[in-house]
Fold this protein.
Amino acid sequence: MKFVVACYGSRGDVEPCVAVGRELLRRGHDVRMVVPPDLVSLAEAAGLAAVPCGPHAQAVLGAHRNFWTHCFGKPWKVRELIELRRQVGEPIIRCWEEMSITLRSLADGADLLFTGLNFEDAAANVAEYYGIPLVTLHYFPLRANGQLLSFLPSPLGRSAMRLFWWISWLGTKKVEDAQRRELGLPKATGPSPQRITKRGSLEIQAYDEVCFPGLAAEWAEFKGQRPFVGALTMDLPTDADDDVATWIRTGAPPIFFGFGSIPVESAADTLAMISGACAQLGQRALVVSGGTDFSRALQFEDVKVVKAVSYAATFPACRAVVHHGGAGTTAAGLRAGMPTLILSTDLDQTLWGVRVKRLKVGTARRFSTTTQQSLIEDLRTILAPQYAARAREVAARMSKPAESVTTAADLVENLARKRRID
């Protein structure tokens, strides 16, 4: 069978889709990937044919960080907020148009279109045009529910999410109308989430049910349309793994620090803050730079900086993990049974911070409000014995990475096969 897998965003957005694509390829299917230009190499390393689409994701991520930092820190400065949102939105609109053209070309003759969180609406229109099944991948509960916004009463939380999707749709309605007109489809009369669900698309939830108690029961009416499979990762080794393992064995288990693909504003200040906090607590630090360049920052004793590591190999050897709150990194920490501190820079990361606190495996705050003193206090909190014990309890209830990928691929394969039979 022929599958087209389209995704856009940071590595955390793209790797789950690549993981499923790789498994489908292993099963003998024809798989074509659509990814940002700077992540083509990730898909190709998995043996997948990949087509670049849109601007480099890294170029968009800094603007994304600035918008949410301003939104949480200075929401009353509306003009600045609008300008920052424009800086995020303009390349996204351009990417929508390019994604539509690319998918229309690749999906001709495909058995199924599989898409990540970003641009699922554009992909849904192409799937509707060709009359083929659509699979969407979500790494936190995007469809209206009463669990995600847990600080609100459930009915109000559901209403707030529906309102968010209506406002988002109004912001992209012009470009979506143009796409649907080009495809010969009727003009949409409501947000894409409603249309995707109504069409019977498979909406894979790539996180564990344990993170959102009560969500499965709330969504039972959809009869398997929103299955929980757990976080999807390829667990790829890195060149630094052996060196890091050797360094860890030379002393006490370190605290892991990682900030994902979105670069921090000041590498020097961040590294100094980490070193100062860990020195005061008598801890070692392993810093994974990700999208941040720490090469010009002053280096400190008992602080090791590397570009990337295998979380699966490294986390179990650490004492705790501190990170940005990306869905994949959060899942890796929970699976490893690690007490967690989330220092978020984005909205979905902030929501994962709330989950970590509700699971009682750690705590969270905005990275932009973090100081050396607050970091010391937060580290003291998560290093308390009860957090380690609770983290081990939660780890026992988490899905296994290999099983998650297998389950997701089974669901995709079965939907495509059912369509062929019908």
Summary: DSSP finds 16 helices and twelve strands in the chain. The mean pLDDT is 90. The chain has two domains: 2-230+401-421, 241-395.
